[in-house]
Amino acid sequence: MMENVIEVRDLTKIFDKTIKAVDQISFEIKQGEIYGLLGPNGAGKTTTISMLATILKPTNGSARVCGHDIIKDCDKVRRCIGIVFQDPSLDDRLTGKENLDFHARMYGLKRDVRKKRIDEVLAIVDLTEPANRLVETYSGGMKRRLEIARGLMHYPQVLFLDEPTLGLDPQSRRAIWTHIERLNKEEDVTIMLLTHYLEEADHLCDRIAIIDHGQIVASNDPKALKNELGGDIIQLKPTDDNLIENLLGPFKGLEWVRNVTHIDGTFNLVVDHGEKRIPKVLEIAKNAGVDIFSVGLNKPTLDDVFLYHTGRRIRDERGDKAVMFKTMMRARARRRG
Amino acid sequence: MLAEGGKKMNFEAIYVIWLRELKRYTRARSNIIGSLAQNFFWLAIFGFGLGASVMIPGLDNYIIFLAPGIVGMTLLFSSIFSGIGVVWDKQFGFLKEILVAPVPRSSIMLGKTLGGATTSTFQAFIMLLLAGLIGVPIFANPMGIGIAVVIMFITACAFVALGVAIASTMRDPHGFQLIMNFIVMPLFLLSGAFFPVTNLPGWLQVLVLFDPLTYCVDGLRNTVIGVSAFPLTITISVLIGFMIATLLLGSILFRKTEI
């Protein structure tokens, strides 16, 4: 099934008439996909899902979620989406189960469905055992998992996850990834993931849109995005440096080799799907009579992709933080004034 | 937040928000005991202290006069702070969870108001029982106790709604002290909790008559100890009017609150 669960057309949000938080973005998310919105803090990710979740009114443009217009049918949109906010949003004086029960009743789940569903979602995120403990006793990772479970309670078609692993230790992060993959498959829920962690987007997402300054600068599946940069680099080090020239001939002209260079005793081949080419490359080298000392494979990372499209590294966030701070202060001043 | 979802009341949502207030209340034992103890000290020390030299016409004892005032004070404090609790939900993020649900804001407001009013009325009722413990004849008129509880509940609804209204205009809990000094304390001091509201100097009389808590305290005196400045029909009418006004104000402001 290739139906679009989310369709966004020229969606724009301008704060205070001047700050373009989201600038005419358009994209589609298909049923069953894990779609990632990757960008630094302040890029407009949260503003985008706030509009899709009908929390914020767009300045311009339109979007449909599960076939419902986000402006005209906001109640229907809310029923078909689950959302895990970036900041915690649990009542920690209630137990895990009570938080879920609260949610279920707010979304009008009938009694028998409610009971069954609470047990189901608790099992999905491995929280069955501590379910009757007060949330204030939970660890950060457990709270996050409970929020994910809560987002799933009312059988949403699409689940929004806003930085689901922000501030978690690597082990909890891995656990959350596993849960996200599992619920995507087992619950067949479409997921829109917002993150500024490259590994996270790379690991989880079927497709990624890179967002910067409110605009989508590139969008594709992670592999294709990386391949657009020119492919993988296989690095060969011959045992004898002097024989390196002998490799040029056999590799030049092969249709799957995009480029051949050599510097400082290292022979570089630019190819697609580097890992699959290594055996062949070694065979060719052997036939050319060159003894190979070591082989390396360099794959471009999403960080390289980000750098390529924006001219910055994603981790270099100082500029964006300053912008975000300014935006926030202005918004505050406006509310107070 | 965008326009309301269906305008219809969502009773399940009202119930679960009410239930949450009750659960949070019963789990904060130290809060309950702490505030009861404080109010009890007010009653005992002011009651016996001032009582040694102050006489209220028609009553044996000043503490009998003071007790309904302290019950009113308990009600005021716990309801207004229960309403302002919305700002803590904002701070800790739970308000997002509530506001993104497909539930009309008016139902959320109503659940919150009924929940806060239930716990506050309970708290004030315990205070009344404590007053009975130190000799205030609270059971002289059992019918009166029933009406007193109704008066307490109406007043509590009004002040919870007022608290929600105030909280809706706050971004974080920093304004707490300001509200305490400029809203809660004046409401309390001008309510006639300590003194009879008749024969006051003109300017004070006017302020006292504009304080809704005056009518709550007077209504409680009327029903529990049989002393009052206004007829019961007037006190109850004024309180219901005040409740409707604060509910409207609270609903309007709460609808506009942003997360």
Walk me through the structure:
The complex is a heterodimer of chains A (337) and B (259). Chain A is of the alpha/beta class. Chain A folds into two domains: 4-226, 3-Layer(aba) Sandwich (Rossmann fold); 230-298, Lrp/AsnC effector binding domain/regulation of amino acid metabolism (RAM) domain (Alpha-Beta Plaits, 2-Layer Sandwich). Chain A has helices at residues 45-52, 74-80, 96-106, 111-124, 140-152, 170-186, 198-204, 222-227, 245-251, 274-287, 302-310, 318-336, and strands at 4-15, 19-30, 34-38, 60-65, 68-69, 81-84, 158-162, 190-195, 207-212, 215-220, 232-238, 257-263, 266-271, 292-298. In chain A, the strands form three sheets. A six-stranded mixed sheet of chain A has the order 6-7-8-3-9-10, with helices on both faces. A four-stranded antiparallel sheet of chain A has the order 2-1-4-5, with helices on one face. In chain A, strands 12-13-11-14 form a four-stranded antiparallel sheet, covered by helices on one side. In chain A, helix 5 (140-152) packs parallel to helix 6 (170-186). The longest helix of chain A has 19 residues, at 318-336. Chain A is elongated. Chain A starts with a strand and ends with a helix. The relative contact order of chain A is 0.14. The mean pLDDT of chain A is 87. Chain B is globular, with a radius of gyration of 19 Å. Chain B has ten helices and no strands. In chain B, helix 9 packs across helix 10 (232-256). With 259 residues, chain B is mostly helical. Chain B is 75% helix and 0% strand. Chain B has one domain (11-256). Classes of the chains: A alpha/beta (337), B mainly alpha (259). The interface between A and B is medium-sized, with 31 and 29 residues.
